[in-house]
Automatic annotation (TrEMBL):
<dbReference type="InterPro" id="IPR012318">
    <property type="entry name" value="HTH_CRP"/>
</dbReference>
<dbReference type="InterPro" id="IPR050397">
    <property type="entry name" value="Env_Response_Regulators"/>
</dbReference>
<dbReference type="GO" id="GO:0003677">
    <property type="term" value="F:DNA binding"/>
</dbReference>
<feature type="domain" description="Cyclic nucleotide-binding">
    <location>
        <begin position="19"/>
        <end position="140"/>
    </location>
</feature>
<keyword id="KW-0238">DNA-binding</keyword>
<dbReference type="InterPro" id="IPR036390">
    <property type="entry name" value="WH_DNA-bd_sf"/>
</dbReference>
<dbReference type="Pfam" id="PF13545">
    <property type="entry name" value="HTH_Crp_2"/>
</dbReference>
<dbReference type="Pfam" id="PF00027">
    <property type="entry name" value="cNMP_binding"/>
</dbReference>
<dbReference type="InterPro" id="IPR036388">
    <property type="entry name" value="WH-like_DNA-bd_sf"/>
</dbReference>
<feature type="domain" description="HTH crp-type">
    <location>
        <begin position="154"/>
        <end position="228"/>
    </location>
</feature>
<dbReference type="InterPro" id="IPR000595">
    <property type="entry name" value="cNMP-bd_dom"/>
</dbReference>
<dbReference type="InterPro" id="IPR018335">
    <property type="entry name" value="Tscrpt_reg_HTH_Crp-type_CS"/>
</dbReference>
<protein>
    <submittedName>
        <fullName>CRP/FNR family transcriptional regulator, anaerobic regulatory protein</fullName>
    </submittedName>
</protein>
<dbReference type="GO" id="GO:0005829">
    <property type="term" value="C:cytosol"/>
</dbReference>
<keyword id="KW-0805">Transcription regulation</keyword>
<dbReference type="GO" id="GO:0003700">
    <property type="term" value="F:DNA-binding transcription factor activity"/>
</dbReference>
<keyword id="KW-0010">Activator</keyword>
């Protein structure tokens, strides 16, 4: 885990994270002095489930997946996070807890880290940070509940349609003929996300493509061509 610095980056991590948006330039500089920096290679673990941790991880550059192992020994992906997002907020709001997920770099990833001690000091001086952390916790809880509801349905087409729409909201870029999504996950990982097999993902993608709802461009890009029709699968 080589060290790096975001001091010379076009946009330091402290300015990319919404929880620090209300702070002054001098306060952000003080936080920057507290931050530790690390780089992770693609596939490398940042934190493992059941491992003790007291760190808030901020993604300076790259993408990270958060996942848990099911009782059946299969990976269940919970979140896919990218530049400017963070995780480990529960490690800051509680003490002596073990991580309830694992985090892996999906690409070469640069991370900024703040310890619980530093964050407690910052929250004491800036209560607004605590409120924003709690809002993030609430948002992620809602996402997890929606994921659980989606996984509870027996229809894989509904699950996969939900996933495509979610990825489109987060990673989609408008272009002629639809919404282009650079997929952050492999086919195997997409299957893990929605609790189906890789073969099912490929088969349902092909069906949606035959129906004119999406277009596949290689293995890493998908174009949503008919969002209204895709949304009908989720209601």
């Amino acid at each position: 885990m080589p060290e790096h610095s975001c001091k010379n980056a076009a946009e330091p991590c402290t300015r990319k994270v919404p929880i620090f948006a209300s702070l002054s330039g001098s306060e952000l500089s003080r936080i920057s002095a507290m931050i530790r920096h690390r780089k992770y290679a693609k596939g490398q673990a940042l934190i493992l489930e059941e491992q003790p941790t007291d760190t808030l991880f901020i993604i300076q550059q790259g993408q990270v997946k958060l996942s848990k192992m099911t009782p059946q020994g299969k990976e269940q992906i919970l979140h896919v996070l990218s530049s400017g997002e963070f995780f480990g907020e529960l490690n800051i709001l509680s003490s002596g807890e073990l991580s309830n997920f694992s985090a892996y770099a999906l690409t070469e990833t640069a991370i900024c880290m703040l310890t619980r001690t530093d964050m407690e000091q910052l929250m004491a001086e800036n209560p607004d940070i605590t409120i924003k952390l709690l809002k993030t916790v609430a948002k992620r809880l809602a996402h997890t509940e929606n994921l659980a509801q989606s996984l509870a349905t027996k229809d894989p087409e509904i699950r996969i349609a939900h996933m495509i729409l979610e990825l489109g909201d987060k990673y989609g870029k408008p272009r002629s003929g639809g919404l282009a999504i650079k997929l952050p996950l492999s086919r195997e990982e997409l299957a893990s996300y929605v609790g189906v097999t890789r073969e099912t993902i490929s088969r349902k993608f092909a069906r949606f493509e035959d129906l004119g709802l999406i277009e596949l461009v290689g293995n890493k890009q998908l174009i949503v061509k008919d969002r209204p029709s895709l949304e009908k699968y989720t209601v």
